[in-house]
Design a protein that fits this description.
The chain has 195 residues and is α+β, with helices and mostly antiparallel strands. It has one domain: Beta Barrel (Hypothetical Protein Pfu-838710-001). It is built from 6 helices and 8 strands; from the N terminus they run E-H-E-E-E-E-H-H-E-E-E-H-H-H. The chain has an 8-stranded antiparallel beta barrel, surrounded by 4 helices. The two termini are 23 Å apart.
């Protein structure tokens, strides 16, 4: 699956307009622990390995990297250990976490997010409040591999514009955390063109 998403910072009144007429899906606490090696080999490729709700996932960038080159983010999501092993070249020797640790991967952030999820006009809207004082909104569509992701991106931007959302660059929760608390890691992402 390919996730096509755009992040927004909401100004006063934006949330009310956006969720008017939307179907409320859920509110839950999401705890994510993100992993990388000391040389940032995953995150500097815009790959995000995380442990969430008792399972491993990796999001692999499908969009062009580089400063200012994209309007929305597109990620391939792999949600099984075998697929993740293949993607990052991790041999099977023991259990997944032990093999990660042996290969030099370790947690670099655990973030708790209160997520309110809505559906509206074939879009998923996530309004996230993080435990370190940051709030963002994501509008997304999921697509099968091979679907025209650029067309979905245009639809997301049009939907956001219809609801008065400002199209601007917004840091995701992990990047915002690194910006605030881990400047060396944040700089490495900038140097690699991820930001």
């Amino acid at each position: 699956m390919i996730e096509v998403e755009k992040k927004f910072r909401l100004k006063p009144g934006d949330e009310e307009r956006l969720i008017a007429g939307a179907e409320f899906v859920s509110e839950k606490l999401v705890i994510d622990t993100y992993y990388d090696a000391a040389d940032y080999r995953l995150t500097t490729k815009d790959w995000w390995l995380r442990y969430r709700d008792g399972r491993w996932e990796i999001k692999i960038a499908e969009h062009d990297r580089g400063h200012g080159k994209r309007a929305v983010d597109q990620y391939k999501e792999i949600e099984n250990e075998e697929g993740i092993r293949q993607a990052i070249g991790l041999e099977v020797r023991a259990d997944f976490l032990s093999d990660l640790t042996t290969a030099g991967y370790k947690p670099f952030i655990t973030v708790k997010t209160t997520r309110r999820k809505y559906h509206k006009e074939n879009f998923t809207i996530d309004i996230d409040s993080m435990d370190f004082g940051y709030e963002i909104c994501e509008i997304e569509r999921m697509a099968e591999d091979g679907v025209d992701a650029d067309k979905l991106a245009e639809q997301i931007l049009a939907f956001a514009a219809q609801h008065g959302l400002e199209h601007a660059s917004v840091r995701g929760k992990v990047v915002e955390y690194l910006y605030r608390f881990a400047p060396e890691h944040y700089k490495a992402l900038g140097d690699a063109g991820v930001l």
